[in-house]
Each structure stands twice: as C-alpha cells, then as structure tokens.
Amino acid sequence: MAPSERSGPASAIGVDVGGSGIKGAPVDVVGGAFAADRVRIPTPQPATPAAVAATIAEVLGQVGGSGPTGITMPAVVRNGVVETAANIDPSWIGVDAADLFGTALCRPVAVLNGADAAGLPVMRFGAGEGHAGSVVVVTLGTGIGSAVFAEGTLVPNTELGHLPLHGGDAEDWAADSVRDREDLSWKHWAQRLEQYFELLESLLWPELIIVGGGVSKKAEKFLPHIDVRTPIVAARLQNESGIIGAAVHAASHAG
Question: Which own/partner pairs from 175-182 qualify as long-range (CB within 8 Å, at least 24 positions apart)?
C-alpha cells in the first residue's frame, strides 16, 4: 500500500455502487472493518446519474454519520469524472461524479473505480499485505473488475475485465453473472476463468492473483479446478472490500 493510503482520519464512510446493489457502511480504516452494519439498496434501473445519486443519499441516510465519504463507480474514473459505463447507464460518460455526489449529498466525496477500491484493503489488510511484487486483484460479480499493484502502488483504472476473449469482452464470457445466467457448473466456469487468468499472465506476468467479489466466499468450489503458473488465492474480505476501500481512499484524501 502506498504511504498516502495510510494517512488520514481513523474512520470514514464507504459506498460501493455495483451493477445490482448500492452498499454503504461506516468503516474503521485503521483496522479495516465495518464500524456498523452494512446497508444495501438495489441499484436503480436504469442506473442514471440522478437515480444513483438519490439511492446513495438513501443509503447514507440509513448509515448516518458525516465523516469523509468515498464512493466507488463500476467505471473508469479520472479526476472524479466517469469515462466509461459498462455496467451502468451510458449517460454517465463525461459526468463529474465527485461534483454530482458532493452537491446531492451536501458533503465532499472522493470517487474512484470500484475494482481499484476493492483492491486497496486486500493489499493493506488481506492476502496482498506485505507483498512487494506485482499483484492483480480480480473481482468477480456482475462483470470482472481488476486492480493492479506494482510494489504495493495502485495502477488505477486497468479495467482488465474488458480484455478481448472469445470474440468479446472477457467479462461477457467469464463473469460470475454469466455462470449464474448460463447455469454453468463450478468446474465448467473454472475452465473459463482459467483461460482468462492465462490471458492476464501473458499480459502482465503477475506474481500473485487474488480473487475477490462475493463469489470468493465459495472459492473452494472453483479455484481448485484452475491450473495456471501464477499462485491464486481468495480475498479474505470478499464483497466487503469495495466499501472498505472507498472509505480508506476517502480518509487518505480528507483535509
């Protein structure tokens, strides 16, 4: 973890905007754990900027508190501006999400890519802690997110779920949502993931791959069927990591 991510207040609020749900909680950013129960509200459909901002306001109303607030987006985010919209409404492209949310929520916010947020606590508190080499954190859910770390420093907005595989985006063939939609067996899905991880290896040659997302709690059902050169482990924080990472990011940028 970069030194800048280790400074700031001891608590913050994290909100994780996903394809199916918007989740938030207060977070102890020193210990890397929720400070209270998580709140989850389904992502509005269509997930337009105004609708998502209103749902985040509802989540924060239930969470309470007014500390530093971090919000993830399932998109490339540069300087607070949303640049892509793979799993949200296309009207997000070009929107200054930091300004939109700050105005709607009447508080300053820090906005970042959802997979990057999920990777931060994995490297600080989880399976990547103390790992000095290159690490790829892959989140499996509605799509495939990625966070790449070189010597503990995040390389933002890698979006490796959109690498080309079998004639389209890799996530359209190997995401957990595809396993569910196509009713794939765990072994069959693992074979698809193996091809995806082989693609990552050929591109980056990482020293460790960490698998996160909600399905990581069932890692024993699919990871043993994957045979690649790179060591692969499951993230211990599972689907809590996006909220915790958003809060860590907000705390490090507070003040």
Answer: 175/140, 175/141, 175/142, 175/143, 175/144, 176/140, 176/141, 176/142, 176/213, 176/214, 176/215, 177/19, 177/141, 177/142, 177/143, 179/215
